[in-house]
Each structure stands twice: as C-alpha cells, then as structure tokens.
Predict the structure.
Amino acid sequence: MKILVLNCGSSSIKYQFIDMKTGVVLTKGIVEKIGLKGSFIKNERFDGDKVKLEGEILDHQSGIEYILGLMMSQKRGVIKSLEEIDAIGHRVVHGGETFQGSCYLDDITIKGIEDCADLAPLHNPANLKGIYAMKHLLPSAPQVGVFDTSYHQTMPDYSFMYAIPYSLYKKYGIRRYGFHGTSHSYVSKRACEILKVDYQSKKIITCHLGNGASITAIKDGKSLDTSMGLTPVEGLIMEKEEIDYSSLNTLLNKHSGVLGISGISSDMREVETAAAEGDERAILSLKMYQYRVRKYIGAYAAAMGGVDLLIFTGGIGENSPDDREKICENMEFLGLEFDKKINNGVRGKELIISKKESRVTVMIVPTNEEWVIASETRDIVEQMKTVK
Ligand code: ADP
C-alpha cells in the first residue's frame, strides 16, 4: 500500500508519499507561501534528487495539484498514474471530544471536523482545505483523518478540566485538549520497543520540543496530562505558533515564546548562538525555556508517583545537547542520573543518555509523525476492507 500523507497549514502543505511495505519515503516536500507572493514547492525524492520550483500557487487545491503533478512527472516523479495512491492520510489538528482516534473521512466525519473549527480556527479550516481538494482530485481514494488531540482523550476529567464555571465546559467545550499526540504516542511506544519493556506499565514523560513544544505524562499506556491546553499556546515556551484568533492571540502566538523574550529569533539555534556570545535576553529566554521543562517534569513525576522513562524529541529535543543537559541537571533526587558525556554532541538519533545505574532512563527518540499518520491510515483502510 502506498499512502500520501498531507499536513496542510494556513499557507503551506507538507507531504510525504510512503511505501508501507518497505517503509521507504518515495518522495516528500513542502509547498510554501500559498496565496502569497513567491510561492514555491520543494521536493526530495528517495534517491536524493532535490528540486525547488517557483510558481503561482493561489490556493490549497492548486498546491496539491502541483504536488500530484510532480509525483507523476517523467523526470522527478515516482508514479505513473494517480491510481497508485492507495489512500491519503491527513493531519488534523483539533478533534475536540468528538474524535477519540483516527477516522475514515466521509461526510459525517468531515462535518465533525468542521464543527471543531471553532477550537482551532486557523488549523482545522486549513486541514479541511486539503481534505476537500483531495476529495475533488481523487474521489476514489480513501481518506483518513489523524488528530493531534485524540491521543490525549484518555486524560481523566480532573486533569483536563479548567477551574472555570462548569457551564463553559458543557457549552463551549473549554477544557484541556493537548496536541502533538501523534508524536507523544510514537516516541513513547518506540522507546518501550527499543528497551523491550511493557508500555502499559511504565511511567513516561515525553518532551516534544520543536517549533511548538509540549510535554506529556503517560501512565499505564495512556496520556494522563499534557502541557498544551485548549489551544497550543498554554504550557511550555515555544519558538512560534501560527494561530490567529485575535490580536491578543497574534501577540501570544507570533510575537511571544523564545522570539518574544530574546528579541532575536524563533529559531533556537540563533538564540543559542546569541546566548553563547553573551546576549542577556537570549540567555534569559534559554533559562526560562529550560526551567519550564524542568518544572513540568517535576510536576508530572509527582502526578504519576514517579517516572521510569524521560524522552526527548522534536527539533530541539533531538538536536540540542545543551538544552537536554540543562533540563536534566540536578535531577538525582528523582533517581535520574544523566550521562553528559554520552549526550554531548548527539543529534537526531535514538540513544539512551542516562547512566547505567540511573533509575530513570533518559532517551532521545526522533519523532516521525508522518509515519504515524500513514500507519493509522493503512490500519483504517484495511479495517474498512474487512468490514466490506
Ligand atoms: P516542527 O515543530 O515545526 O515540526 P521541528 O520539530 O522540526 O519543528 O523543530 C524545529 C526547530 O528545531 C528549529 O526551529 C530549531 O530551532 C530547532 N533546532 C533544529 N536543530 C537544532 C540544533 N542543532 N540546536 C538547537 N535547536 C535546533
């Protein structure tokens, strides 16, 4: 089975076309600046062939047409006809309380996603544009929605409720939902697979530190708590986010986080460089960032009655040894003995970075959200076939 994974943002579309039998990503890329000046597509094929093409891409449908055209092109393509796309898996940001897991996209579930748009007004409509476009361009291919929120639907009420009038929860669904579910789920399961331990009986804390950042406490194989709330703004300090409810939200989402504090960049590498050169606000933003993560680790260890496994993932979690070291400093009281030497210089690979005698195992596990979306899509399509 070959699956096209689409992650549609407000002005971008990330895509991967995966052969599920071999696990090979046949082709992948991103369309950027949709509807803006200077739109382009960047594509990389499995054999390393890379291309960047500029062109006028006015909307999501033409962006997807561009992707499909490239996938079928003689020079850079990987398929001869669209029929070789067996299914499409869409990342959908908000599934509210409606979606407890991934789902086949038909009129009813699509309506369900539309109904959740109030909770994620910038994300869900963009995800939906991709769904509508694919329905139009490839009506015979099954489509599946995989939600950022659904993994966290296992949170108990005392964890997801806010202390606001109960009626606001009932009426508007104001509660903690949590995001990055595919990533928290993938890295925690992958770590248990590597360590050959039982997922269902471990206390795990996963730190997804990327452009967006969130931490999750996973107990008995289920999300117990997570740092992002009703919207992704709550919790950790982030590099940047792009939701736009109102000007306040623009402030929180676009001008806050590491960029807002440092005044330098939303890219952690640039902030780290500035901090190394002595820039005081860059130093402050790094300290705040690391402090928040530490605070959540402590809180979640208390919430779970201990921790067995601490996992770092996301662009920063995978690639910043310095942040990992600072976050794990002086955590011996928790039974965590960090191995600075092993951690030093490691980027982007699966590795245990705690000492052998440490009660808490600390690991780096690179995330793979596209693979989760593709696997969920395959499973649902196969289930549908057996039902038929
Ligand atoms: P997204 O959340 O959009 O998927 P990523 O998880 O890819 O983003 O994280 C991207 C971020 O990771 C970049 O903005 C950058 O700040 C950070 N990053 C990547 N490499 C490094 C590095 N070597 N050191 C510190 N930060 C890094």
